[in-house]
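[Help] Beginner question about ligand-bound structures

Sorry if this is basic. My supervisor gave me a protein sequence and a SMILES string for zinc ion and asked me to "get the holo structure". I don't really know what that means in practice or what format the answer should be in. Inputs are pasted below exactly as I got them.
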Amino acid sequence: MTHFKDLTIYTYGAATSSDVGARNIGWLAADIEFQIAVADPAFVERLWRFCRISIGQTRGLHECELCRSSEANSVCLKGEKLLLGSAEIRVLSRKGETYAAPNLVYHYVTAHNYSPPAEFVEAVLSGPSPPDEEYFPGGHFIFPHAWPGQNPPLEVAGRGG
Ligand SMILES: [Zn+2]
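Answer (accepted):
No worries, everyone starts somewhere. Holo just means with the ligand present. The predicted complex, written as C-alpha coordinates, is below.
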Protein backbone atom coordinates (compact mmCIF):
# COMPACT_ATOMS: atom_id res chain seq x y z
CA MET A 1 0.00 0.00 0.00
CA THR A 2 1.06 3.52 -0.60
CA HIS A 3 2.57 5.00 2.50
CA PHE A 4 1.68 8.44 3.81
CA LYS A 5 2.93 9.87 7.05
CA ASP A 6 0.26 10.42 9.68
CA LEU A 7 -1.39 13.85 9.65
CA THR A 8 0.01 14.88 6.27
CA ILE A 9 -2.55 16.29 3.85
CA TYR A 10 -4.55 13.64 2.04
CA THR A 11 -4.29 13.67 -1.74
CA TYR A 12 -4.82 10.02 -2.56
CA GLY A 13 -7.24 8.13 -4.81
CA ALA A 14 -10.58 8.90 -3.28
CA ALA A 15 -9.77 12.58 -2.77
CA THR A 16 -12.66 14.81 -3.74
CA SER A 17 -13.57 18.41 -3.06
CA SER A 18 -15.03 17.34 0.26
CA ASP A 19 -11.64 15.92 1.19
CA VAL A 20 -9.79 19.23 0.92
CA GLY A 21 -7.56 19.52 3.95
CA ALA A 22 -8.22 15.98 5.12
CA ARG A 23 -5.33 14.37 6.96
CA ASN A 24 -3.78 10.99 6.40
CA ILE A 25 -3.97 8.38 9.13
CA GLY A 26 -2.77 4.80 9.18
CA TRP A 27 -1.27 4.43 5.72
CA LEU A 28 1.22 1.90 7.01
CA ALA A 29 3.63 -0.05 4.90
CA ALA A 30 6.38 -2.57 5.40
CA ASP A 31 9.54 -1.13 6.95
CA ILE A 32 7.80 1.99 8.20
CA GLU A 33 8.05 2.55 11.94
CA PHE A 34 4.97 3.51 13.88
CA GLN A 35 3.91 4.12 17.47
CA ILE A 36 2.48 1.09 19.18
CA ALA A 37 0.13 0.67 22.11
CA VAL A 38 -2.61 -1.71 23.11
CA ALA A 39 -5.82 -0.10 21.92
CA ASP A 40 -8.63 0.93 24.21
CA PRO A 41 -11.56 -1.44 23.52
CA ALA A 42 -13.89 1.57 23.34
CA PHE A 43 -11.75 3.01 20.57
CA VAL A 44 -11.71 -0.30 18.68
CA GLU A 45 -15.47 -0.62 18.89
CA ARG A 46 -16.05 2.88 17.63
CA LEU A 47 -13.47 2.54 14.87
CA TRP A 48 -15.42 -0.49 13.68
CA ARG A 49 -18.45 1.70 13.05
CA PHE A 50 -16.50 3.85 10.64
CA CYS A 51 -15.27 0.75 8.81
CA ARG A 52 -18.88 -0.07 7.95
CA ILE A 53 -18.95 2.95 5.65
CA SER A 54 -16.76 2.38 2.62
CA ILE A 55 -15.21 5.37 0.89
CA GLY A 56 -13.54 5.14 -2.50
CA GLN A 57 -14.22 1.46 -2.92
CA THR A 58 -11.88 -0.29 -5.35
CA ARG A 59 -12.08 -3.76 -6.85
CA GLY A 60 -8.72 -5.01 -5.65
CA LEU A 61 -7.83 -5.99 -2.12
CA HIS A 62 -4.76 -4.51 -0.49
CA GLU A 63 -3.04 -6.99 1.71
CA CYS A 64 -1.46 -5.99 4.98
CA GLU A 65 2.22 -5.50 4.24
CA LEU A 66 3.08 -6.07 7.87
CA CYS A 67 1.85 -9.64 8.15
CA ARG A 68 0.82 -10.62 4.61
CA SER A 69 -2.00 -12.60 6.17
CA SER A 70 -5.31 -13.01 4.40
CA GLU A 71 -6.89 -12.79 7.83
CA ALA A 72 -6.16 -9.08 7.70
CA ASN A 73 -8.83 -8.62 5.05
CA SER A 74 -11.62 -10.41 6.84
CA VAL A 75 -12.30 -9.21 10.34
CA CYS A 76 -14.99 -9.97 12.84
CA LEU A 77 -16.34 -8.11 15.85
CA LYS A 78 -19.20 -9.41 17.96
CA GLY A 79 -20.37 -11.72 15.20
CA GLU A 80 -20.33 -9.06 12.49
CA LYS A 81 -17.89 -9.46 9.61
CA LEU A 82 -16.27 -6.79 7.49
CA LEU A 83 -14.04 -6.93 4.46
CA LEU A 84 -11.04 -4.63 4.74
CA GLY A 85 -8.44 -3.55 2.23
CA SER A 86 -10.45 -2.16 -0.63
CA ALA A 87 -11.83 1.08 0.76
CA GLU A 88 -11.15 3.99 3.06
CA ILE A 89 -12.88 5.57 6.01
CA ARG A 90 -13.50 9.19 6.98
CA VAL A 91 -13.45 10.41 10.54
CA LEU A 92 -14.58 13.89 11.51
CA SER A 93 -13.44 15.71 14.61
CA ARG A 94 -15.36 18.21 16.71
CA LYS A 95 -12.74 20.75 15.72
CA GLY A 96 -13.62 20.42 12.05
CA GLU A 97 -10.76 18.19 11.00
CA THR A 98 -11.31 15.30 8.60
CA TYR A 99 -9.13 12.20 8.65
CA ALA A 100 -8.72 9.82 5.74
CA ALA A 101 -7.55 6.29 6.51
CA PRO A 102 -7.53 2.96 4.74
CA ASN A 103 -10.07 0.72 6.45
CA LEU A 104 -7.18 -1.67 7.10
CA VAL A 105 -6.45 0.74 9.95
CA TYR A 106 -8.78 -1.45 11.99
CA HIS A 107 -6.48 -4.40 11.42
CA TYR A 108 -3.39 -2.32 12.12
CA VAL A 109 -4.82 -1.24 15.46
CA THR A 110 -6.11 -4.63 16.56
CA ALA A 111 -3.45 -6.95 15.13
CA HIS A 112 -0.33 -4.79 15.09
CA ASN A 113 -1.03 -2.41 17.98
CA TYR A 114 -0.72 0.61 15.72
CA SER A 115 -1.31 3.66 17.88
CA PRO A 116 -2.73 6.52 15.81
CA PRO A 117 -2.13 10.17 16.72
CA ALA A 118 -4.09 11.30 19.78
CA GLU A 119 -6.20 13.78 17.83
CA PHE A 120 -7.47 10.97 15.60
CA VAL A 121 -8.30 8.78 18.58
CA GLU A 122 -10.14 11.71 20.11
CA ALA A 123 -12.11 12.27 16.88
CA VAL A 124 -13.08 8.59 16.67
CA LEU A 125 -14.20 8.60 20.30
CA SER A 126 -16.00 11.91 20.44
CA GLY A 127 -16.79 13.00 16.90
CA PRO A 128 -19.89 12.10 14.90
CA SER A 129 -19.89 8.45 13.93
CA PRO A 130 -21.98 6.07 11.88
CA PRO A 131 -24.81 5.29 12.10
CA ASP A 132 -25.71 8.53 13.89
CA GLU A 133 -27.83 11.13 12.16
CA GLU A 134 -25.02 13.57 12.78
CA TYR A 135 -22.76 11.61 10.44
CA PHE A 136 -25.46 11.61 7.75
CA PRO A 137 -27.03 15.06 7.94
CA GLY A 138 -30.38 15.03 6.17
CA GLY A 139 -29.90 11.37 5.43
CA HIS A 140 -26.87 12.01 3.23
CA PHE A 141 -23.26 11.35 3.93
CA ILE A 142 -21.20 14.39 3.11
CA PHE A 143 -18.64 12.46 1.09
CA PRO A 144 -19.38 11.21 -2.41
CA HIS A 145 -18.40 7.67 -3.36
CA ALA A 146 -19.62 6.47 -0.03
CA TRP A 147 -22.38 4.12 0.85
CA PRO A 148 -23.39 2.25 3.92
CA GLY A 149 -22.45 -1.37 4.04
CA GLN A 150 -20.00 -3.47 2.19
CA ASN A 151 -21.83 -4.25 -1.01
CA PRO A 152 -21.58 -1.23 -3.25
CA PRO A 153 -23.43 -1.12 -6.54
CA LEU A 154 -21.13 -2.20 -9.35
CA GLU A 155 -21.28 1.05 -11.25
CA VAL A 156 -19.86 2.82 -8.23
CA ALA A 157 -17.32 0.15 -7.44
CA GLY A 158 -15.37 0.77 -10.63
CA ARG A 159 -13.21 3.50 -9.19
CA GLY A 160 -9.50 2.96 -9.06
CA GLY A 161 -8.30 -0.57 -8.66
ZN1 LIG B 1 -1.30 -7.38 9.28
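A couple of things worth pointing out: Residues 64, 66-67, 69, 72, 107, 111-112 surround zinc ion (CB under 6 Å). Residues 41-51 form the longest helix (11 residues). Feel free to follow up in the thread.
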